[in-house]
TrEMBL record, chains A, B:
<dbReference type="GO" id="GO:0000166">
    <property type="term" value="F:nucleotide binding"/>
</dbReference>
<dbReference type="InterPro" id="IPR052515">
    <property type="entry name" value="Gfo/Idh/MocA_Oxidoreductase"/>
</dbReference>
<feature type="domain" description="GFO/IDH/MocA-like oxidoreductase">
    <location>
        <begin position="135"/>
        <end position="259"/>
    </location>
</feature>
<feature type="domain" description="Gfo/Idh/MocA-like oxidoreductase N-terminal">
    <location>
        <begin position="6"/>
        <end position="120"/>
    </location>
</feature>
<protein>
    <submittedName>
        <fullName>Gfo/Idh/MocA family oxidoreductase</fullName>
    </submittedName>
</protein>
<dbReference type="InterPro" id="IPR055170">
    <property type="entry name" value="GFO_IDH_MocA-like_dom"/>
</dbReference>
<dbReference type="InterPro" id="IPR036291">
    <property type="entry name" value="NAD(P)-bd_dom_sf"/>
</dbReference>
<dbReference type="Pfam" id="PF01408">
    <property type="entry name" value="GFO_IDH_MocA"/>
</dbReference>
<dbReference type="Pfam" id="PF22725">
    <property type="entry name" value="GFO_IDH_MocA_C3"/>
</dbReference>
<dbReference type="InterPro" id="IPR000683">
    <property type="entry name" value="Gfo/Idh/MocA-like_OxRdtase_N"/>
</dbReference>
Length: 387, 387
């Protein structure tokens, strides 16, 4: 049995660079870098100078065929994760795909189906925020029924400010062809995953999405979504990249209480002594008026506040270690690769609802979505030519 | 010229009783009670015993024809405000209608049109929350452009908890025939008015409305709305009567800052030193990362927090005094009667969107709405018969 996982890092942009640093600085248990891959000659120059002992490949097939890696992570443009993931799994190489697992569900389903045919391999998705103790705690509270059945979710996550200069960094950024979307595909996939991880997938969504609202981009920078969970519960999800005073507030109402998460730092848990439906049936209107008119609210609920420290970086290390742990000794995965579909399905449904101007059911029709996405890509190409 | 306005109070339920108390205890400047009206013999008994010097009428026409009142307030079921309002104005009696001004826009438009033919009379609507210094301050901040052009509004107002016993108090409550709706018609009209008073009317709305979701009622107890302001700005409005841990959080994002109102008690104002669009165009991605990665955010904005005390009761007195002031010396009205249409138009559009299952434009088709409402009333009657 291998002692340490030899990881191939495919794509040396910002995230690939971060993972390289974490691993080469010895911060990640049980992983060594087995090889690098990037198509950019400047990256080759920089990496071979800095890491002369680690092989560098200009294309991922060579890396996968080299025999130097037991596993890979795909820090490449979103469209490429499924293709590279399948190529790796085909060669019996464990695979960690960056989020989002792909741009459209059709390609992510193909990846998942292929991975299912290789159950002996480790297949994971880089949802680092799932390792955040704060969100783990929220999930635990919900799973344990601490606030009962969910009636409403409400997440305003506009703390994704990006200036125009961010979008102008490269040609492919914030384009349909290059990224397949904006804030839904690039920034908010974490929250889309956490939301469904914690509260489950909605059955229907309706969205109002603004494309190039406050930025000179083709894709979306402002998103409002209504989620219908199919059991009476409703949700709202709001995200944007133009709010420099970004809000990050996640509220979950259950029939036994409420959880409010502020700025990914603080959880306020309000636990009702009795289920709300019971209170509704037993309390008189006069009781209520007395209570809400300055009465002692501790008669009906208790409040707990939990504070958490920001742990950026540690999360990424935790995902890498968890991936290696699953390979080496079967440690349970925090984010199995097959889970990547949910966030993509949500993002696709949100886009599709806005394109069709109506509520859409999940799962959406993958072919309709792909046809609409391809239309956007064609329009974008025509617009570029006209420029 | 009259020294004090002789007010007729039509309807002696909870609000009529409150106004009677305020006025008879001398808390309301420039108003005396000229007459009472209620159809309930028990009310006649109680009021004539307690206020033997004030005439009591069993129907409003007698009160209006008595010569004993210069003005009236209509604390009656919502459907009746327009009819009684017109009857009063016809007799040159100043009119203050309770909120909502009516159940459907068609009847409120009729009232407004009639009032317009009597410009010499004072016509007002009882939006007491407009006298709340907190909301006046928010309006002033927006009107003065302190946070620039609005990009997003978000109001979660679920602090309207009502137990089943509240709904079971009387036959007409929470029925289509008796009230014409639930939380949108009975509890949330204040916020619907404040929202449009502060941020303007939307051009379109899409809603998900739950009827009898957590209560045994025919009308709505859970509402989620997406507002499209037609200029790129979007809003979300959420209200419910089943959240005993009610949230009241109103956030407005502008291109120069943000306002957050918590629990109708605290305003947090964040003012950007430069408009967001300018920051987007001048700041580099590296600058931003430095700033958001623990930098000094006071470089980009300043924060002010204003705390307010709860002022229930005072608000109602303020509206009554403002109404009398307009009659006596032309004091500007806080809530001119014609303003009553906006909240009703919003509530109607929200209902209609949920009934049709699609986004609707404002102003909505009044006849379509009324036909749908009458269908609900008929269904309700059939259901009652079947019981």
């Amino acid at each position: 049995m291998m002692e340490k996982v030899r990881l191939g890092i495919i794509g040396l942009g910002a995230q690939g660079g971060n993972y390289t640093r974490f691993i080469s600085e010895g911060k990640v248990k049980n992983i060594v870098i087995g090889g690098f891959c990037d198509t950019d000659p400047d990256k080759r120059k920089a990496y071979t100078e800095k890491y002369p002992d680690i092989p560098f490949y200009d294309n991922y097939t060579d890396l996968l065929n080299s025999g130097n890696v037991d596993a890979i992570v795909t820090t490449v443009p979103h469209y490429l994760h499924p293709k590279i993931g399948i190529a790796a799994l085909e060669r019996n190489i464990h695979t960690l795909v960056e989020k989002p697992a792909g741009v459209y569900t059709k390609q992510v389903n193909e990846l998942n189906a292929f991975a299912e045919s290789k159950p002996e391999l480790t297949f994971a998705v880089f949802f680092n925020q799932r390792t955040n103790p704060l969100y783990q705690k929220v999930k635990e509270l919900i799973d344990d029924g601490e606030i009962g059945d969910i009636r409403r979710t409400n997440w305003i996550i506009t703390a994704w400010w990006r200036p125009q200069g961010y979008y102008d960094q490269s040609e492919w950024r914030a384009t349909w062809e290059g990224e397949g979307g904006g804030v839904l595909v690039n920034q908010a996939p974490h929250q889309l995953d956490l939301l469904q991880w914690i509260a489950g997938m909605p059955k229907k969504v309706y969205s109002v999405v603004k494309y190039g609202y406050q930025r000179d981009i083709a894709v979306e920078d402002d998103v409002t979504v209504v989620l219908d969970y199919g059991n009476g519960a409703t949700g709202v999800f709001i995200t944007a990249t133009h709010d420099v005073l970004g809000t990050n507030r996640f509220e979950i109402l259950g029939d036994k209480g409420k959880i409010i998460v502020d700025d990914s730092k603080k959880i306020t848990i309000k636990r009702l002594h009795n289920p709300e439906s019971e209170m509704s049936n037993t309390m008189s209107w006069a009781d209520i008026k007395k209570l809400t008119g300055g009465g002692d609210m501790s008669q009906i609920y208790s409040e707990e506040v939990l504070e958490f420290k920001s742990v950026w970086g540690k999360q990424h290390i935790a995902i890498l270690e968890n991936f290696a742990g699953n390979i080496l000794d079967g440690t349970e995965l925090v984010a199995p690769g097959s889970d990547g579909i949910h966030g993509v399905a949500l993002a696709n449904a949100i886009h599709l609802s806005s394109w069709l101007g109506k509520e859409v059911e999940l799962p959406i029709d993958e072919d309709v979505f792909l046809a609409e996405l391809n239309k956007k890509i064609q329009e974008e190409k025509r617009a570029l030519v006209e420029k």
